[in-house]
Each structure stands twice: as C-alpha cells, then as structure tokens.
User: What shape does this take?
Amino acid sequence: MDERILQTIPHRPPFLFIDEILEVTETSARCRRFVDPEEAHFAGHYPGNPIMPGVLLCEAVFQTAAVYMVRRQQRAGDAKAADKTPVLARVGDARFKRMVVPGDTIEIEATYKEAVGPFHFMKGRVLKDGKPAVTVEFALALVDKAAAD
Assistant: This one.
C-alpha cells in the first residue's frame, strides 16, 4: 500500500479502496487498486460468481477524489487543510458498465468540475483494462474534522 494515501486521507483498511496514488494534477487524481480475491464481501456478493459491489467501486472514486481535494488544499497553501476532512455530499448519475471481479486491477480517476459554495462538484470513473467499468458524478464538502466525528 502507498503510504502517501495514509498520510493524505483518513480512510483505513478494511474500508480503504485505493492502493496506490498514480498522479495528482491541477484538475484530477488517478489511483490504482488490485481487487484482492480474499476480500470478505466476495463471500456473499455473489457466492460462486463473485462481483465487486458497485457501491465499493464508487467509494474508490470518492477516496481518489478525497486525495485530490486534500492535495489541492495543500497546493493552495491552505494552512487549515490538515483540519478539514473531505466528505461525500451528493451522488448522481452512477452508471455501471463492466463487472469488476476478484483479481482485477483497476484504475480510478476523479476530475474536478467546479465549486458552488462549500460544495466541490466532481466526476469520476473506474477503468478495467482501459475501459470504463463505472462512471459517477458527485460532490464533496470540506468539513472541520471535529464536525466529521
């Protein structure tokens, strides 16, 4: 696991769905994840034909977006960036196009669109073999860590 992830966002195993930060630019972030066949949810989703739950694929996008937002705040020189936690505020237009199964390696992208008040609108996707498996639009808010507890 990429230690930079643990230094950037508050998520921890077993609820951490990115393994490596590939790139963070002015407008986006890309991460990678190996889908471990031993993950507990595969025992029940679906027995004999395990499929990565779509909600967890979306969570990987949201975590990639959290990496982006924290780095964005740091680049902007926000002295209070360490006191903020990016939290999901809205999900819209999620589309599931390909199944992700145990043993797959996926690439996760999150791209910044715009800010409206305290909300940061983004879009993301999960790629399997270079092709979209999931696309989703969403918004994050940066909240004080005390408020997120």
User: Anything to note?
Assistant: The first strand starts at residue 20 and ends at 24. The chain has three helices and six strands. The chain has a mean pLDDT of 93.
